[in-house]
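Q: May I have one protein plus its fold?
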Amino acid sequence: MMGADHSHRPPAGHAGGRYRRRLAIAFGLIFTFFFVELVYGLLANSLALISDAGHMAADVVALGAALAATTIATRKDTTGRRTFGSYRAEVFAAGLTVLIMLGVSAYVVFEAIGRIGNDSEVSPTPMIVVGGLGLIINLVVMMMLRSGAQDSLNVKGAYFEVIADTAGSAGVIAAGVLVATTGQPWWDTTVALAIGIFVAVRAIMLGRQVLAVLGQHVPEGMPIDEVADTLAAIPGVTDVHDLHIWVLTSGMNVATAHLVGATTEDLPRILDHARTILRRDYDIDHATIQVERTATRECHELGW
């Protein structure tokens, strides 16, 4: 006996779609300020300001990719080939954000190292003013995306980008103040180097989450052994095989399982009970469960 359980609520995979308007506003703000920061960074000869502008350019691409992904993820498949829909577009967008963040970090670190020992003249006033404006914009965008980062890996990627850029703006202000008070331009290089390292660390953290989803790992915090024990404790169940739980996209957990029943009469009740447990206790709305009188020859243990 086979059963598939799914909710008729709006798919949880559309979590990022609920924040599409906020992503669009954030994209417009960051896109506009990127040009301001780049121009003044070149005029002030500030690597910290230029690096922050480069990171803001990464924000533009990341937010644009996130915005596009939320649109693609909600489209209905017309090819008949994408049986899981296009939900993973959001995960791929988050992966693109990781690559962009690593690229920006590498560029900034490379440029900072190249400036070591170089006493290039830096204008601190544009750094402080433009960095201050950037900080305000980034804080506004952070507040807009904060709630969405809890629901969607895609929005979380964009949110992480903005967090890193906020730290960058604060660093630009600090560098400007230090250059102005000490007259030492190497503060600009030091802060730029710190920004690059910080961005790389955030990228690696997000990248690990993206790889976990693409690798079909058990959702973070999901006690797979507990799930197996709970299913095995259903009255009439004698064994549990081929239990697999993974994340299709942010907020959409998927599961498959084979259960063995003691009697043929128990099978419908076991199926309903198992679907209820997965949905109610483990937030798995999409589960395919096979309930059998005896285990098939193809059954495996809980893991392959």
The two ends are 23 Å apart (CA to CA).
